[in-house]
Specification:
- The complex is a heterodimer.
- Chain A has five helices and eight strands, in the order αββββαβββαβαα.
- Chain A has helices spanning 30-46, 109-124, 159-171, 184-191, 201-209, and strands at residues 53-58, 77-82, 88-92, 100-102, 129-132, 138-141, 148-153, 176-179.
- In chain A, a hairpin with a 7-residue loop joins strand 3 and strand 4.
- Residues 1-13 of chain A have low confidence and may be disordered.
- Chain B has a five-stranded mixed sheet with strand order 1-6-5-3-4, covered by helices on one side.
- In chain B, helix 2 (77-90) packs across helix 3 and helix 2 crosses helix 6 (146-163).
- Chain B is elongated, with a radius of gyration of 24 Å.
- The chains are: A alpha/beta, B alpha/beta.
- The interface between A and B is large, with 48 and 57 residues.
């Protein structure tokens, strides 16, 4: 099949002398190429060329002390409760909180966050916060984000929901967000929105630190 | 007048150029090849807009499959050997030298500590059929949590390797969970990590648009 060696001259000519057969200078490359492509295929299939993307996540320290917590304006806080079946429940602030639900579509959660941002922006402008400047002196900066978002994935949510919510934080450029555990009060609130949220700071801190 | 015969082309094609290209590609793939780690479970990661790539530094990956089972994988044979030696001594698992060598080349694993020995001694086919339960986690008591123990000791082992100059980086902790993993399973992992003071870690995601929107 792969017999392609050319008649490289020589051989018996009509009525001529018997000459020594000259070897062809051509080599049959086919097997080598076969092998080459076989190896290429192997390496192509076993290689992981594309490195996976990563989403960096920084969690708060485990031992939060109540006195170390810096108070945040209630009207800047947006709490997202990630629920079952790709639903997001959300409420603003803590006192007189109204529960509403949305989904992860662009016009869902994102518009909730952007809407909240716009309202806070109008009222307060950019959040100020202290950080060390280039000389190492603590200074007040006001290039922070407008709002503080608390993400609380509930028991029946799935991992994709969390990643989607974190994505929205990146898309909306929310600077301050945190993932906390859901408190019992909030679970009841989701079951019975009409009952209202009787917010209790101690219980929230307990839910967050345990 | 002699009949004009069309010149017959030789049926031979010059293969040199093709061979050149073939071997160039071969060389490229051989040099860039990083073998796909053998994964005992298939994990379909959720998509995100993040475009940060996984760093080249040593990674310690915690896998969480849709059933909530937890698997571990870490790079570096030296670190793994030193880790398994320590684990075996600390919990008197009685692993032989051969077992430890096998473990350092094993890849991803997810069995409770007491089954580790029998898991290692299986051959590849046996491991594929092994009923893996995942690494047990205890979020109530961190000292009982096997995951915490593994991650903590692995980081220490890698740190010692770094001090000896055998590796350049400490472990980057990576969590790879399936998009359908229930959150409580992921929460256990995250809580375990914060319990052992790993507050910065990375979630593996796939590129947005690479998967169909549900």
């Amino acid at each position: 099949m792969a017999e392609i060696a050319q008649d490289g001259g020589g051989g018996r000519k009509k009525g001529g002398k018997v000459r020594s057969k000259k070897m062809s200078t051509r080599i049959d490359f086919t097997p080598m190429v076969d092998l080459g492509f076989l190896l290429i295929t192997f390496f192509m299939l076993t290689t992981t060329l594309a490195k996976p993307n990563i989403l960096a996540l920084v969690m708060p320290e485990k031992d939060i002390k109540l006195e170390d917590v810096e108070p945040v304006k209630e009207s800047k806080v947006l709490t997202l409760l990630l629920g079952a079946d790709d639903k997001v429940y959300w409420y603003e602030g803590i006192s007189d909180a109204k529960l509403d639900s949305t989904d992860y579509a662009a016009e869902g959660l994102r518009s909730v966050i952007l809407n909240k941002m716009d309202r806070v922006k109008e009222q307060f402008g950019l959040q100020t916060y202290k950080r060390k400047n280039k000389e190492g002196v603590e200074e007040e900066f006001n290039d922070g984000s407008y709002i503080n978002v608390i993400i609380k994935p509930m028991k029946d949510s799935r991992y994709k929901n969390l990643v989607d919510a974190l994505d929205e934080m990146a898309i909306c450029k929310v600077r301050y967000y945190v993932i906390l555990d859901v408190s019992k009060l909030e679970e009841q609130f989701v079951k019975n929105p009409a009952g209202g949220l009787k917010f209790n700071v101690e219980e929230q801190v307990e839910a967050a630190t345990n | 007048m002699p009949k004009h015969k069309p010149k017959r082309g030789s049926p031979l094609v010059d293969m040199t150029a093709m061979t050149d290209v073939a071997f160039l590609l071969l060389t490229f793939f051989m040099l860039t090849a990083k073998m796909k780690p053998t994964e005992t479970v298939v994990i379909d990661t959720p998509s995100s807009i993040s475009e940060t790539k996984l760093p080249d530094a040593g990674t310690l990956t915690i896998f969480v499959d849709p059933e909530g089972r937890i698997f571990l994988d870490m790079v570096g044979n030296h670190t793994r050997f030193s880790l398994i030696k320590e684990i075996s001594d600390a919990h008197s698992l009685g692993l032989s030298q051969q077992d430890m060598v096998t473990f350092s080349n094993l890849g991803m694993f997810g069995v409770p500590r007491n089954q580790l020995g029998s898991y290692i001694r299986e051959d590849i086919a046996g491991r594929a059929e092994f009923k893996v339960e995942g690494i047990p986690v205890d979020t109530a008591d961190i000292n009982k949590s096997e995951l915490a123990d593994w991650v903590h000791r692995a980081r220490l082992a890698q740190f010692r390797m770094k001090q000896d100059g055998k590796v350049t980086d400490e472990y980057v902790i990576v969590v790879k969970a399936d998009k359908n993993t229930p959150y409580p399973a992921v929460q256990k992992v995250i809580n375990t990590l914060t319990d052992i003071n790993v507050n910065k870690f990375n979630l593996i995601t796939s590129m947005e648009g690479a998967e169909k929107k549900e």
